[in-house]
Each structure stands twice: as C-alpha cells, then as structure tokens.
Specification:
With 120 residues, this protein is of the alpha+beta class. It has one domain. It has one helix and nine strands.
C-alpha cells in the first residue's frame, strides 16, 4: 500500500505550466505584431507608427513595419538602402520615400546608418 503524504487536492493548480508558457508566448507575439518590427542583431525601437533603426555593417537587414530594409554601405556621405526590393540612398538629415516607407536618415557614417522609418 502506498501512502501519500498530502491529499491530492493540495497539488492541484488552476493553471498548468504549459498553458502559462503558451499564454506568455502568445502575449509576446501579439506585442511584436503591434509594434510592426522584428528584431535581429540591429538596434530597433518601435512605437505604433514608426521604428528607429540602426543598421551597422554591409548587408545588415531588418524587417520594419512589414517591409524588409537593408543597408549596403555608404558612398560620398550617402547611405545605400534597399527597401522592399527598391534601392535608394539618403544623406544625414534627408528624408526619402521608398515603397511604403518614409525614411529619415539622422546619422550616416562609413559603416552605419541611423534612421526613422514610418509608413508613408
């Protein structure tokens, strides 16, 4: 005969760990969808209407506001960017439109660009 030290009801919980983990995962995915950005090694900060992005190094890439944005370097103070398959460039302080995005380049260096992307 096996004797249980506690009644079974003391071990019952109202939320199982797998259900709790699934809820947390779903909440996190919902939050990511609201911000409209996916995160990689690049620095990305989003509000509901725009994302501030720092892309560093040749071929850096990030998805923001449903659009893929790539950085392929700089030449003559202009950052070369790919937006949804289109190629554009921008200088520090300049705003350009490409695909569905307006891109405001706030800083352009030899191997890095900082910009704000918003839906146009």
């Amino acid at each position: 005969m096996t004797v249980r030290p506690y009644p079974r009801s003391m071990f019952a919980t109202t939320t199982s760990r797998p259900r709790l983990a699934a809820g947390l995962l779903a909440g996190g995915l919902g939050l990511a969808a609201l911000t409209g950005c996916t995160f990689g090694s690049e620095n990305v900060q989003c509000s509901p209407s725009s994302c501030t992005v720092t892309l560093e190094g040749t071929d850096a890439q990030v998805d923001v506001l449903g659009t893929t944005l790539t950085f392929s370097g700089t030449q003559d103070g202009r950052a070369s960017l790919g937006v949804a398959g289109a190629n554009v460039s921008c200088a520090e302080g300049e705003t350009v439109t490409a695909g569905p995005l307006d891109l405001e380049c706030s800083s352009v260096t030899e191997d890095r660009v900082e910009l704000t992307a918003s839906l146009g």
